[in-house]
From TrEMBL:
Family from the record: Belongs to the UPF0174 family.
InterPro entries xrefs: Ubiq_cyt_c_chap, Ubiqinol_cyt_c_chaperone_CPB3, Ubq_cyt-c_CBP3-rel
Ranges where the Ubiquinol-cytochrome c chaperone domain occurs: 36-174
Listed name of the protein: Ubiquinol-cytochrome C chaperone
Organism whose genome encodes this protein: Tianweitania sediminis
PANTHER family for this protein: UBIQUINOL-CYTOCHROME C REDUCTASE COMPLEX ASSEMBLY FACTOR 1 FAMILY MEMBER, UBIQUINOL-CYTOCHROME-C REDUCTASE COMPLEX ASSEMBLY FACTOR 1
Tree of life domain: Bacteria
Length: 180
């Protein structure tokens, strides 16, 4: 009770969420995604990769309650604040930002649904199709989609091995432990 009275729980949750978000963004900026797997290194391509990693993390904690649910909400809010900030840096006017945010939110939640359903069903062809449709729309052949789908499956398994306690402390890893 005293933690809530003095706002300590909320600050700790916000601190954890910001740390998690930094790690998600770092994972989304891995050079392999852009240099080897041909994800466009554009604002939209970077949005796609941050969204992909957000989906992986949010899928992992979707059934959690209490503190972790709050952290997941703060994390999601931070993601959209970052999108808002990025749009403004790109020169989108104050009037145009809300409209673009709504469109990007629909895009994000659509991706979350299709990626989560495919991962839950262990349906790699469906995941590949969703990735190709979203990350490289209009490109007929994108062979690296298999690599990205396998990456998502691997990272989903890796996240499942990490404890919620680590997440609540702001620790998250998309990297395999050393020696594996």
């Amino acid at each position: 009770m005293l933690r809530k009275l003095f706002g300590l729980g909320e600050n700790a949750g916000r601190t954890a969420a910001l740390r998690l978000y930094d790690q998600i963004v770092a994972a989304a900026r891995q050079p392999v995604l852009y240099a080897q797997w041909n994800v466009p290194d554009t604002p939209l391509g970077r949005f796609e990769m941050v969204a992909l990693h957000m989906v992986l993390f949010l899928r992992r904690v979707r059934d959690e309650k209490g503190e972790m649910a709050g952290i997941a909400q703060i994390l999601t809010d931070e993601f959209f604040l970052d999108v808002d900030h990025s749009l403004r840096e790109l020169g989108i006017s104050d009037v145009g930002v809300p409209k673009r945010i709504k469109k990007l939110a629909r895009m994000f939640y659509g991706r979350a649904k299709s990626y989560t359903e495919a991962l839950d069903a262990d349906d790699l062809p469906a995941l590949e199709a969703a990735l190709a449709r979203n990350v490289r729309p209009g490109v007929e052949q994108w062979p690296e989609t298999r690599d990205l789908a396998a990456y998502m499956k691997d990272k989903s398994v890796l996240l499942a091995s990490q404890s919620v306690g680590e997440f609540a402390s702001g620790r998250l890893s998309f990297e395999e432990p050393a020696g594996t």
